[in-house]
Amino acid sequence: MRIGIFTNIYLPIISGVVTIIENYRKELERQGHKVYIFAAKQPGYRDENPRVFRFKSIDLNYKISYPLPIISSSRINRTIKKINLDIAHTQHFFVCGQIAWYYAKKFNIPLVFTQHTRYEYYTHYIPYLPKEISKPLALSLRAFYANSCDAVIAPTEDIKNSLLKYKVKTPITILPSGVDLERFSKANKETIKKKYNIDEDKIVLLTVSRLAPEKNISFLLKSFKKTILKNPDVYFIIVGDGPSKKSLESQSNQLELKNRVIFTGEIEQEKIPSFYKAADIFLFSSFSEVQPTVITEAMASGLPIVAVKAGGIKNAIIDGENGILAPNGIDEFSKEVLKLINNEELRGSISEKARKMAKNYSVENATKKLLNLYQKLIIQKKKDYKSQNNFALFKDKFLKNKFNQILTQK
Fold first, then answer.
1. What is the DSSP code (8-state) at residue 179?
2. Hey, what long-range contacts does 379-387 have (CB within 8 A, 24 or more apart)?
3. Domain range holding 307?
């Protein structure tokens, strides 16, 4: 099968969406399929993968740290025609979503749209429009786009319900994103604690995230301040980079956490499993996530999770089983973290359950389900196309016979 993945963001950017794309790409190729990535050009970056094709891009330089693709490209138009794709799968409804829609219609192939993002939490990136307008506009445009596709993938039940609420009629498949579990089971933790001068007996809290307002990292810093007042032998590692990094570092200093909070900056994907392995508890406070891959990665690493009870996280964590769902309050969140810090037996019990539950999210299982969806769509598209052609032939024949009858009568 020849699969076209269309995405606004791709390597070298590190994000949940990019991780999901790469997990699927590698597994699909391992199973013998050809995956072609169509993404925005990244200045100064050269792809090693010959099946990655880049659109010319423009850097808006407005709140977001990555360029957006320019839709028109005669070169990629020729490339897609030559490749002869079987299916187009877009990861966003805007920009690359329009590109994928254009090629799917032009070459009569199925179009799949995965909603990775709760767009209502990202409207502050839309310039010049107040939130009261941008939020319903984004959700309405998403629904309009989804209804132009052949299939929609929702990683969670919550997202499916959100799509249905906005009158999406296209069939929706719930498919949690897959994770390469093996990467996280073989990681080495000693290198991380040694690098950051953390004693082996100290408790390490961890979050892995893009540092941006919608990720709510400021909340975790305030909560951590409460935590170390009760137990000072704890460190907090924040893995990631983003537009909020400087303000979060400043907040950390103001809270006098400098010696206990570690900002790693951007970390290469292959090194991230070691951070999970070095940690004891994973923290999560974002309201904007659909089905966070970091939660599955934490589970695969055997980390008990403390997360704010919100959004897609409720679909990934069973309270008291593979983690704890905490109220959206600084004191309450800190209380749940301290419960795990002070109870090694509870940490161990949740850790074991988390590992077992992570198996449900293996990339092998997710890819199998994705391929089944692709195959059904391709078969249906061919049937529809054949039916349309048969009708066109019948119509032409019928009109020709009628025309002959008229001539004969004359």
1. B
2. 380/110, 380/150, 381/108, 381/109, 381/110, 381/150, 385/108
3. 183-361
Task: Indicate the pairing of strand 305-308 with strand 172-174.
Answer: unpaired
Residue 118 CA to residue 212 CA, distance in Å, equals 14
List, for residues 22-47, the tens digit of each pLDDT value. Answer: 999 999 999 999 999 999 999 889 99
The answer on pLDDT for 312 being more than 80 is no
Same domain, 357 and 367: no
Tokens of 3: 């699969």
SS3 at position 112: strand
Establish if 62 belongs to a structural domain.
Answer: yes
Domain count, the chain: 2
Amino acid at 321: E
Q: Report the distance separating Cα 176 and Cα 173, nearest Å.
A: 10
Strand partners, 101: none
Indicate the Cα dihedral angle 269, 212, 179, 278, nearest 10°: 60
pLDDT confidence bin for 128, thresholds 50/70/90: low
Specify the CATH number for the domain of residue 110: 3.40.50.2000
CB 218 within 8 A of CB 249: no
Q: What is the pTM of this model?
A: 0.86
pLDDT above 90 (res 137): no
Query: Which amino acid belongs to residue 293?
Result: T
Residue 66 lies in a domain: yes
How far is 271 from 32, CA to CA, in rounded Å?
27
Q: How many Cβ atoms from other residues are within 10 Å of residue 280's Cβ?
A: 19
d(CA 210, CA 204): 19
Cα 9 to Cα 19, 20, 141, 181: the distances in Å are 11, 12, 20, 23
**pLDDT by residue (tens digit) across 331-383?**
999 999 999 999 999 999 999 999 999 999 999 999 999 999 999 999 999 88
Contact 300, 182 (CB under 8 A): no
Alpha-carbon distance of 302 to 359, in angstroms, equals 11
